[in-house]
Design a protein that fits this description.
CATH class: Alpha Beta
Keywords: Metal-binding, Transferase, Zinc
Organism: Sulfitobacter aestuariivivens
CATH superfamily: Aldolase class I
CATH architecture: Alpha-Beta Barrel
GO molecular function: 3-keto-5-aminohexanoate cleavage activity; metal ion binding
Helix content: 25-40%
Number of helices: 12
Radius of gyration: 18 Å
Largest sheet: 8 strands, parallel, barrel
Cofactor: Zn(2+)
Protein name: 3-keto-5-aminohexanoate cleavage protein
Strand order of the largest sheet: 1-2-5-6-7-8-9-10
Strand content: 15-25%
Number of strands: 12
Number of domains: 1
Length: 310
């Protein structure tokens, strides 16, 4: 039987701000509700950030996850993937508390430092819903998203061991990040098989082009052989195109309002579930079948929902 395609949905992230879409969930009740709806639509993995409910700003306060995680677990069997990315100005030590507190089945792990720039987005708006938004976006022109080898080792040591046994979604924003991962794998920080996420289309990383996706896949084949699973993110306008082609190439896919606010050219998505529904339709029409959460657990070798701490 053909391998099934795992659909991840990234619910809110730390890139987009409240002004950009009225449908972006920034409060615990809407983050949880949209996550549940995305799971019901067919997402096997829910990639979660939290927001400060007072102003919608990205937050890594474990208390801001407390009203989200138990509700999602109670109403879905989806795999929960908690970000260790926080936002680009945070240190790794600042970004880890939610994962350490709740010990999810999965966590994202960024595989290298990079410029992570959002500032061109600020030029699209004349007014702002929240006071923090414009400075947050314009200030990103000077950001370095720090993920050194020491940072990577810290995350691996704290979350990857027997205390938490977290499976990492290794986020690779460029080809060099694949080589960083190979270096870490060779030194025993991680155990194969591994799970790669090709993050394409972020200013500062590799662009979301089909030639680049092919090159990322070829490089991963060379470095990791058959000891990996992979997925692709097409940030912005390339979201569905990269998902379609990635699935045809044997990969898994990620959608969600963290990665794109739109459902089609010029039309805002009404929810995360709308994007999940669309990508499932595309996948079905081209012969791919979406994996269930338990099938995703088997494919990725996860510890199981009964081992989390929420």
């Amino acid at each position: 039987m053909p391998k099934k395609t795992i659909i991840s949905c990234a619910i809110t992230g730390a890139v987009h701000t409240p002004t950009m879409s009225p449908h972006l969930p920034v409060h615990p009740e809407t983050i949880a509700s949209q996550a549940i709806d995305a799971a019901e639509a067919g997402a096997a993995i829910l990639h979660l950030h939290a927001r400060n409910p007072a102003n919608g700003a990205p937050s890594v306060d474990p208390a801001h996850f407390a009203d989200i995680l138990p509700r999602i677990r109670a109403e879905t069997d989806a795999v929960i993937n908690i970000s260790t990315g926080g936002n680009p100005v945070m240190t790794v030590a600042e970004r880890l508390p939610p994962a350490l507190t709740y010990s999810p089945e999965m966590c994202s792990m960024n595989m290298g430092s990079m410029n992570f720039a959002l500032h061109p987005l600020a030029d699209k708006y004349d007014s702002w819903n929240e006071a923090w938004e414009e400075d947050y976006l314009r200030g990103s022109e000077g950001n370095i998203f720090r993920n050194t080898f020491a940072d990577i080792r810290l995350i691996a040591d704290q979350l990857g061991g027997t205390d938490h046994n977290v499976k990492f979604e290794h986020e690779c924003y460029d080809v060099g990040h694949l080589y960083n991962l190979k270096f870490c794998l060779d030194r025993g920080l991680f155990q194969a098989p591994i799970f790669l996420q090709f993050v394409m289309g972020i200013l500062g990383g590799i662009s979301a082009e089909l030639d680049n996706l092919t090159f990322m896949k070829q490089t991963a084949d060379k470095l990791f052989g058959d000891q990996y699973e992979w997925s692709v993110i097409g940030a912005g306008a390339q979201q569905m195109r990269m998902a379609s082609v990635g699935a045809q190439m044997g990969g898994h896919v990620r959608v969600g309002l963290e990665d794109s606010l739109y459902i089609s050219r010029g039309k805002l998505a009404s929810s995360n579930a709308e994007q999940v529904t669309k990508v499932i339709r595309i996948l079905h029409e081209q012969g791919n079948e979406a994996a269930t959460p338990d099938e995703a657990r088997a494919i990725l070798g996860l510890k199981g929902a009964d081992k989390v701490q929420f």
